[in-house]
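[09:14] KT: can someone run the structure on this one? pasting the chain below
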Amino acid sequence: MLRWLRPGLGVKRWLFMVLAGTALLGAGVAVVVLDVYRTSPDTWWLPILSWISLRFLSRPLRALIFGGLGIGLIGAGIWGLNLALLAPFVRKDRPVVDTLTQYRRRERGPRIVVIGGGHGQSTLLRGLKEYTRNLTAVVTVADDGGSSGRLRDSMGILPPGDIRNCLAALSNDEALITQLFQYRFANGGGELEGHSFGNLFISALSEITGSFEEAVAESGKVLSVSGRVLPSTLHDVRLVADLAMPGFSGEFRVKGESRIPEMTGEVKRVWLEPDSPPAFPAVIKAILRADLIVMGPGSLYTSILPNLLVPDLAAAVRSSAALKIYICNVATQPGETDDYNCGDHIRALEAHVGAGFFDMVVSNEVHMGTLPEGSQWVVAEDDLEAQYALYRSDVADEESAGRHDATKLTEVLINLLEERTGPLVI
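[09:31] RB: done, C-alpha cells below
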C-alpha cells in the first residue's frame, strides 16, 4: 500500500484532498451533533448517544479511535472504487501501481525523434519506448515494393509498410493484436497473398477517415502505442538513384526504392521525384522540440536518406537544438552498401545532406557471429575519431548477427543524452 505514496505518481495530492474534505465534513457533522447533544432536553436517547461517542474514554483516545476508523473506511472506499473503475484495464500479470509508475516515468521522459525505416528503426523503438512516451518515429513514404507497393499502385495511398512496423514496435502490448497487425497472408490467399493485415487495415482506414495521416493516428489508438508514427511527407514521391554498373560506362539510372538493392552497381547518389516535397508539419514541430534526434539504424540509401532528402525536414534537423546522433549499421546491406565501412556511411550521408549534420556517430565495436551471405561487418576506421565525434560500443545482437540489440543501443543513447543534458528520465 505504501508504494502508492511514491513521489511522482500524482496520487498523494488527490488522497490528501479527499482526507481534507472528509475532515471538514466530519467537523461540520460534529458541530451539529454537539449542538444537538448540548441543547436537546434530557431524553432516552442521550445516554445512547453518549455511549456511541465513547464519552467514557479520554478525548485523545477517542480522537485516535474515530480518526483511525475514518482513515480505514476512506482507504477501503477509495480502493474499492478504483478496483471497480479500473477493472477493464487491469492486467493480471502486473499490479496497477507498477503500471502507473511506469506510465508516469515514461510520460516525463525525453522528447526523442527517430528518423529512418525498416527493421532497424523498429528495433530501436522497442528499446526507447521503455524510457519515454514522447517518441516520434519519422518514416519514408518512398517504398514501392511488396504489399506496400501493390496497395500504392492499386489504391493510390502512401505506402503503409514502414509505418505498420513502427506502430507494432511502439505498441504497449505486443501480443495478439500486434501479431494480427503483422500477419501476412500466405500462399493460397488469392489476391490477398503477400499482403499484411496491418497494411490492409491502414488502407481501409484511409478510405474511411479520408486521410492517410488520420488513418495512422487511429491505428496508433488501436495498438495503444507509446508515441507517434509520422510520414516524412504526405506527397507521393519516388526514390531515384544513379548507379555505377560493372562494365557500363557512365551511370545507370534506377527508379523505385525496391529496385535499387536489386542492382549490382555502386550507388552514387539518390534523390526524390518530384523534387523538394514539403515536409509533414507535425514532423517539423516534433524535430524542433526534440531533446534527441536519432538517424538510423536502417538502410542507408532506401530508408534514412529518403527522409533527409525532404528539404524542410533536413532544415529543421539543422536548426534543432537537440543532440543529433547517427547510428551506423552493424553490417553492410547487399546491393546497397557492399564493402562499406563506417566512414563510407558517414561520407555518403554528408554527400547528400552536407557536413556537420549530426553531433555524434555510434558504431558497433563487437563483431561476433556468422553474418548472412553477402553481408560484412561494418568497421569503424582507426583514424575516424580525428574527423568525427565517434562513440564505439557493443550494440550488436548476440542472437541475430548483423542486427542491433534494442536494449544495448537504447542504453547507449540515453547515457549519451544524459551526459549532455543531465538526467531527463525519472
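[09:33] KT: thanks! The radius of gyration is 30 Å.
[09:34] RB: yep, looked fine to me
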